[in-house]
Amino acid sequence: MNKLYFGDNLEILRELDNERVHLICTDPPFNSGRDYNAFIGDSLAQKKAFTDTWTYDTAAQDARTDIESKAITSDTYKALDNCLKGYDLVLQNAVSGNSGAMRAYLSR
Predict the structure, then answer these.
(1) Element housing 46 (H / E)
(2) How many CB atoms lie within 10 A of CB 85?
(3) Within 2-98, where are the H helices?
């Protein structure tokens, strides 16, 4: 049956059978530096949901570790892992920019 999921794509995808996913649409962060709020229940009250910045934090490292472990048995994850390793190699020689920001975006 067709289903529509709302939420963090990595959390949802980890729960799905990878042979059964036909389409994934995401709204990626754009590194705007802005704080975004979420409504609490049906009220007009809001709380901070997230800050739109790319940082190589624990969540990004966890995602990267997950990709590396799945690369052992999955050709798709192996290709992704190889791309990320290639990007790491490029960043080793970078002389400008925020390499951590892009690594965080690509890992997630």
Answers:
(1) strand 46-51
(2) 11
(3) 9-15, 58-70, 75-91
The one-letter amino acid code at 76 reads T
Neighbours of 21 (CB within 10 A): 10
Could you tell me if 37 and 46 are in contact, meaning their C-beta atoms sit under 8 angstroms apart?
A: yes
pLDDT tens string 1-41: 677 777 777 777 777 776 666 677 776 667 777 888 888 87
Residue 3 lies in a domain: no
Is residue 2 assigned to a domain? no
Q: Which domain holds residue 30?
A: 9-107
Number of domains in the chain: 1
The CA R_g of the chain, rounded to the nearest whole Å, is: 17
64 three-state secondary structure: helix
- Copy the structure tokens of residue 83: 């791309």
pTM greater than 0.70 (yes/no): no
Phi/psi of residue 91, nearest 5 degrees: -65, -25
Distance CA 32, CA 54 (A): 9
